[in-house]
Amino acid sequence: MRLKRFLIRYYPPGIILEYEKGGHLRTKSIDLLDLTPETNPDELVVDIMHSEPLITEARAEQVKQLILRLQQKQGQEVHHRFCFCKELKAHILPLTNVAFDKSGSRFITGSYDRTCRIWDTASGTELRVLEGHKNVVYAIAFNNPYGDKIATGSFDKTCKLWCADTGRCFHTFRGHMAEIVCLAFNPQSTLVATGSMDSTAKLWDVESGREVVTLSGHTAEVLSLCFNTVGDQLVTGSFDHTVAIWDVATGRLVHTLIGHMGEICNVQFNWDSSLILTGSIDKSGKLWDAASGKCVVTLVGHKEDVLDVCFDLSGQLIATASADGTAKVFSVATHQCLVTLVGHDGEISKICFSPQGTRVLTASSDKTARLWDAKSGACLRVLEGHTDEIFSCVFNYEGDTIITGSKDNTCRIWY
Amino acid sequence: MIFFNYFFFYYYFFLQGLLSILRKLKSTPDQEVRILLLGLDNGGKTTLLKQLASEDISHITPTQGFNIKSVQSQGFKLNVWDIGGQRKIRPYWRNYFENTDVLIYVIDSADRKRFEETGQELAELLDEEKLSGVPVLIFANKQDLLTAAPASEIAEGLNLHTIRDRMWQIQSCSALTGEGIQEGMNWVCKSVNAKKK
Lengths: 415, 197
Fold this sequence. Notes:
Chain A: It is found in: Cytoplasm, Cytoskeleton, Flagellum axoneme; Cytoplasm, Cytoskeleton, Flagellum basal body. Chain A: GO terms for molecular function: U4 snRNA binding; U6 snRNA binding. Chain A: Pfam families: WD40 (PF00400). Chain A: This is Dynein assembly factor with WD repeat domains 1. Chain A: Keywords: Cell projection, Cilium, Cytoplasm, Cytoskeleton, Flagellum, Repeat, WD repeat. The complex is a heterodimer of chains A (about 425) and B (about 200). Chain A has about 425 residues and is mainly beta. Chain A has two helices and 35 strands. In chain A, strands 4-35-34-33 form a four-stranded antiparallel beta sheet, with no helix packed on it. A four-stranded antiparallel beta sheet of chain A has the order 5-6-7-8, with no helix packed on it. In chain A, strands 9-10-11-12 form a four-stranded antiparallel beta sheet, with no helix packed on it. In chain A, helix 1 (about 40-50) packs across helix 2 (about 60-75). The longest helix of chain A is centred in the N-terminal third of the chain and has 16 residues, at about 60-75. Chain B has a single domain (about 30-195), classed as P-loop containing nucleotide triphosphate hydrolases (Rossmann fold). Helices cover about 25% and strands about 25% of the residues of chain B. Chain B has helices at about 15-25, 45-50, 115-125, 150-155, 180-195; strands spanning about 10-15, 30-40, 65-75, 75-85, 100-110, 135-140, 170. In chain B, strands 1-3-4-2-5-6-7 form a seven-stranded mixed beta sheet, with helices on both faces. Chain B is globular. Classes of the chains: A mainly beta (about 425), B alpha/beta (about 200). The interface of A and B includes residues 135, 155, 239 and 349 of A.
């Protein structure tokens, strides 16, 4: 094994090692999820040298410089106030979802008008229209970090795979018996997972376009799914009140997570894939141990349905959004509710953290999106302008641009 | 302001967010009914929907997409999908055809110039495979206007008597005052009962 070079990853903080083994170039990552500007870099380098044989004494200074760079990035004040906004009359029917590519230079929108559109973020111009679905385009995704392919899941029961540059349709995945409502690429971009109202999830081969396996076991609609960071496990959430962990290689059901008393709205792995977060209309969120399938803690406090949940990228914080119009931020370590975000006049249907984990973004039926300080819970900005409820909101990787998609047929870029 | 007491109907909840839409899409248990509300633009679909939910009808703008509301009636939960009627949106009506239990078609009885257009759209809907056998209620709306054509004239003009493949009913109403709506919804519940038997 010979170390070739270092790559730096800002969000979540980490150092990627590129090394040679048996003539092949490989990479592995050292996750520094606990890194803060206060961390002592010298002690951290010693820790890393203990656990990582590729890092020798000779490399210590280089690693320290990388850590200092990461800390410098963390220490930067976030000045973006998202005062400027551009409205794009994107579709002739309401939008469903929005998604960025990794660099944030392009984003995609899905709509009830059966199209998915690719946009240039800086200019707000439309780059491509992906046409071909016979019904609502509901779930959309870039194959990040590569960003050269797009997958679209539709109420027409098919999923399509597109070239992000030319707009050519590579494959149409047929086999689901009902609407496709969620999808995801695996981290290697070799598989697409789709979840459907037909109670199954399916894995599809990106290269050949063939179905790899059907994940059956749920007794009701599969509403959300998420690959873990390595890509060897998939978690699915269903209207049957359960959550399932699947082994991607074999399609075998590993664990069924039983405990929620209502339909599951969202499921997510944390970065190191040790925990799974779920939200349910039973007014609670739950944290599960991915290895044992046991519930670690139930996150309570909301007065109405929990409609969305998410981890921050480093997996230290959890946010929950509810139909009661509030959102909450919890600590993963202590399970304590740190702050409650109060201000929206309607239910909150989407929530996400900024890549840095310092801001929370919420989208509401009150036609606004709001930006909050994750620590103090203060509302930093009300993103006003949409004339109907907002269905989706998302940050780019740098955390300096926001896209919101609304039932008013438009999307807005805030920067 | 005319006050109308719908003792059968009460506001259930206004659906919001994508999750709620999916919850309405899913295979519904027996007591849930999926109703599609269609018709030309400016026919009064959204006003009708808001009347059903006992909501304020003073500020209604052309529907650029859709509205969904759930209303409780006679032991049923009626999930009503109100889809915009402008010409450019009509091709997308078919997005919503699947799993429809009852079709409600709304006609502006005072807009005689568009009777032919509305008749054509209705005929096309009745030809749709995914709507085959689905009971259809036609609301001859805007009867509060003096120039409104009576329901009997509209029925004749649309050749409704030639419909043989499904249950149908025409009901004169005013979405503005609420008159006639309840009678129509009673028929909806009756036809759902008849179909389920």
